[in-house]
Amino acid sequence: MKKNKILVAFLCALFSTVFLLPDSIAQDAPNIFFEMECIKKKSDDLIPLMKEEGMKFNHALMKEGVILDWILMEVVYPNGRDCDCDYYMVTVLDGMKNLDYLWSHEKMGGVVKKVMGDRSMDALMDRFNNAAEARGSMLYSLIDEAIPGPDGNGRLAQVNFMTVDDANADAYVDAERNIWKPIHKESAKSGMIKDWMFISRVFPRGTAWAGNFVTIDMFDSFEQMSKMNMWDAAEKAHPNEENLGQVLSASAGLREITRSETWKWVMSASDEME
To answer: Counting beta carbons within 10 angstroms of the beta carbon of residue 32, is it exposed (0 to 12), middle (13 to 18) or buried (19 or more)?
Structure first.
């Protein structure tokens, strides 16, 4: 039994509810979830392993309709030996039922048999453990985005972890949707950003983990990132707002930016799909 639990945890690392969201978004939030697995690199074999073996599992899951995509992102900033995560493995799901599939020993065992055949799973697990350490995952739900669908995905992401008090949650979500989303749509229209996403942490729950909301600004390059002019976009998005500065300041006061990281796209299952 212990070996089976380790196997499932390993597979979730490889390809790693709306009922928990604030009232203002519980009814109309998209049914898209992101399982984000923190990975600490041990050796240079991690990337070859993901390309040679990880993709096989992810493609099998995509063909079964279990996942929409799997994306490997490298944490560019912060970086170094003392950083918690060198990479994030992001699994994209279109419903909680698919999370049940990923944690099913029986169903995942069928995927393993189909992909591995007569090869040893123990040897593959040893290779992964020598290449990386999986430091745990969190599940997030998509609330909104500037450019719906995968077309707006960029190669760089500024990932902003926001901590919001429960008393401010509804007001904060309303501000992101009605004040900041139009600004980000204008930014995307003018080419300053590629896209913007707004997500909420589903699991784990509680105050022990900072960042119950996350905003993600997507870019094609660092050069594009450097040309971001939020004020110009804000004036175009809200031309009739006389007290725009005060509105933006008040909305920013509803949350605390716990930390901000820069991630770089490395590979994704959809790009490699045959």
So the answer is: middle
Residue 38 C-alpha from the chain's centroid: 11
Q: How many domains does the chain have?
A: 2
Residue 135 has what pLDDT? 94
Let me know if 3 is exposed, middle or buried by CB neighbors in 10 A (0-12, 13-18, 19+).
Answer: exposed
Do 36 and 160 belong together in one domain? no
**213 and 130 within one domain:** no
Q: What is the pLDDT of residues 186-220, one digit of tens each?
A: 999 999 999 999 999 999 987 778 789 999 999 99
Residue at token pair 């995905």:
153
**Domain enclosing residue 175, as ranges:** 144-263
Q: To which residue do tokens 């175009």 refer?
A: 236
Task: Using alpha carbons, list the distances in angstroms from residue 187 to 82, 151, 181, 223, 258.
Answer: 34, 16, 10, 15, 24
Given a contact cutoff of 8 angstroms between Cβ atoms, the answer to whether 84 and 135 are in contact is yes
The reported pLDDT for the residue numbered 80 is 86
Sign of CA pseudo-dihedral 73, 180, 194, 142: positive
Cis bond before residue 22 (omega within 30° of 0): no
Q: Could you read off the pLDDT of 6-25 as tens digits, one per residue? A: 454 445 555 443 334 444 44
Give a yes or no: residue 273 inside a domain: no
Beta bridge partners of 34: 92, 140
Residue 28, pLDDT above cutoff 90: no
pLDDT band at 274 (very low <50, low <70, confident <90, very high): low
Sequential DSSP letters for 55-108:
HHHHHHHHHTTS-SEEEEEEEEES-STT-S-SEEEEEEESSHHHHHHHT-HHHH
Q: Is the pLDDT of residue 29 over 70?
A: no
Position 232 pLDDT exceeds 50 = yes
